[in-house]
Design goal:
With 547 residues, this protein is an alpha+beta fold. It has two domains: 193 residues, Helix Hairpins (Orthogonal Bundle); 261 residues, Bira Bifunctional Protein, Domain 2 (BirA Bifunctional Protein, domain 2, 2-Layer Sandwich). The chain is built from 18 helices and 20 strands.
């Protein structure tokens, strides 16, 4: 919240900060009067500046020494405050909509400190020269044709060396205070800028309703009755066929975890292998990566993944630290919510060559999400879980919308090919501003049809993949820089990033069980594209019950 306070009392010494000719301090000040009480905690305050707004409610997040130094385009925010404010409101970032105007006020305060500092440095330089050799300073003024009394001041000519040294000491203290103010204001502007979401691309619908772009495969439109709805739920199908164990996982790990058994575990590996085969087929230039599942928390934050969502719900699993590690300033670690985070982190604090772009990687990893959602029909079973296997595509592109869109469209085409081969009925959506995360400028989701989710008020669609254009949002926060080609003069800039889910195992597996279920045979059909990794089997049937 922006707070306005009355101008505090300012002593005569502080009011004497003027251009060089009129700058004066008392010769024998009883007490130094610093501009502020700034500390390393960057506490906010007001000074003699006409801007009296304080920002004591802007905490500065400590940045580990090894963390990449972010470089947000604060100048663009200052020059386009209305654009950023409306963008925040469109994306349901209401608190952040006030940040552009607050940045402008902080910048005005920073400029005032800069001017104050310049005046004091000029005075300090003059005092140092006079202390070092007052005679030579007088000769310099005479040679330049200026009036010595006018240049150095009549009072300065009468001051003793001790008085000059004392005034220089006071100026040094004031400069130190001003520099702390400048650092605090810069840190606060950066903190606010980092919290502002990415600017939205024109393709994204404004509001809350997505736009349907296309359909994949024919919609089955089953006339499900209340009696067979149970059998069409992947939870009951998986339990009946001995593929899923939620009860054992609840005992071992809690709600939101699961065991995949026999053909269920085999299906997971088959789905991963199939997705990788589609993405890495010859000629597309995708490179396989096996990324880590644990990353620094500051890397996750730079990618747009915050510990808590706007509603305060925990999103990320942070690893606890020992008191000794905290004392030594060891950076905090967390479990990656998607391979997008470690893949983006590969090039943190790195310099890319424009000739090497686009640089495309595909990685398989376990993903961890603390927010498994509220318990209910829509989140039951495999649809929303805490841990899962995911195949993720990630690319760095030139900072050009046409080149970036080409890679983005390629990702959506690969997602479409994967789901089409699995025989799932899906729809491709252009997601609205209200559904965009902080880093995404544009996002397309693909939803599959889940018979168990079809009921009154719900048509049965559920998200299975997404793809996002993040422009330079992540690159600036990760300090991933781009060296331009020789033709462009080798100018430094920032690459753009694009990410997309090739396949998230649990939801796709759930959709396969529900859509492939044959109630008469009590079995599930295996898509033809997965059979090479399923020992040639075309169906999964019921097993003999153990006694």
């Amino acid at each position: 919240m922006i707070k306005t306070s009355r101008a505090p009392f300012v002593c005569f010494q502080c009011r004497l900060i003027r251009p060089r000719r009129t700058l004066r301090l008392f010769r024998n000040p009883p007490t130094a009067c610093p501009f502020s009480s700034s500390s390393t905690k960057f506490s906010s305050h007001t000074t003699s500046d006409s801007s009296n707004t304080t920002f004591s409610d802007i905490p500065i997040t400590p940045r580990p020494t090894k963390a990449p130094k972010p470089n947000v385009d604060i100048k663009h925010i200052r020059q386009n405050p209305d654009l950023y404010e409306q963008n925040c409101l469109d994306r349901n970032y209401k608190p952040q909509s006030t940040y552009p105007s607050r940045i402008i006020e902080l910048f005005a305060q920073w400029q005032t400190r800069q001017r104050e500092g310049r005046s004091l440095r000029e005075r300090g330089n003059l005092l140092r020269r006079q202390i070092a050799n007052p005679v030579s300073l007088q000769h310099e003024d005479e040679e330049s044709g200026s009036n010595p009394t006018e240049a150095t001041g009549e009072e300065d000519q009468e001051m003793t060396r001790e008085q000059l040294i004392e005034e220089a000491r006071i100026i040094k203290e004031k400069l130190s205070s001003i520099e702390k103010d400048e650092a605090r204001l810069e840190a606060q502007m950066t903190e606010l800028a980092l919290a502002i979401p990415n600017l939205t691309r024109p393709e994204a619908p404004r509001g809350t309703e997505p736009r349907v772009l296309s359909y994949i495969n024919e919609h089955p439109e089953p006339a499900a009755s209340s009696s067979d709805r149970v059998w069409r739920s992947h939870v009951h199908i998986g339990s009946e066929l001995g593929l899923l164990d939620f009860a054992g996982a609840a005992t071992a790990s809690g709600w939101g975890w699961y065991y995949l058994l026999d053909e269920g575990a085999q299906l997971e590996q088959a789905l991963v292998s199939y997705a990788l085969a589609v993405v890495t087929k010859q000629g597309l230039g995708w490179h396989r990566v096996s990324p880590p599942s644990i990353v620094y928390s500051h890397i996750a934050a730079a990618c747009g993944f915050q510990p808590r969502d706007p509603n305060g719900e925990q999103q990320i699993y942070n690893l606890s630290q020992s008191a000794a590690d905290v004392q030594r300033g060891v950076p905090e670690l967390c479990l990656a919510g998607t391979a997008e985070i470690p893949l983006a982190g590969m090039k943190a604090d790195a310099l890319l060559e424009e000739a090497d772009l686009p640089l495309k990687h595909v990685g398989v990893s376990r993903s961890y999400r603390a927010e498994a959602g509220a318990r209910g029909v829509d989140t039951k079973g495999l649809y929303r879980v805490h841990e899962f296997t995911k195949v993720e595509m990630f690319a760095w592109t030139p900072p050009d919308i046409d080149a970036t869109t080409e890679v983005f469209d390629e990702m959506v085409d690969l997602q479409t090919e994967i789901l089409q081969g699995l025989g799932l009925s899906c729809r491709v959506l252009e997601m609205p501003t209200a559904d965009l995360g902080a880093s995404a400028a544009r996002k397309c989701d693909i939803e599959a049809f889940f018979p168990s989710r079809r009921r009154d008020g719900d048509d049965g669609w559920g998200e299975v993949t997404s793809a996002s254009i993040c422009t330079d949002y992540q690159a600036r926060r990760l300090a991933t820089r781009l060296k331009g080609s020789a033709a462009s003069g080798g100018k430094m800039g920032y690459p753009w990033t694009v990410n997309g889910t090739a396949l998230a195992v649990p939801r796709v597996l759930a959709a396969l069980l529900e859509n492939g279920w044959d109630e008469g045979e009590m079995s599930v059909a295996i898509p033809e594209c997965l059979r090479p990794w399923m020992d040639g089997k075309d169906r999964i049937g019921a097993k003999h019950r153990r006694i």
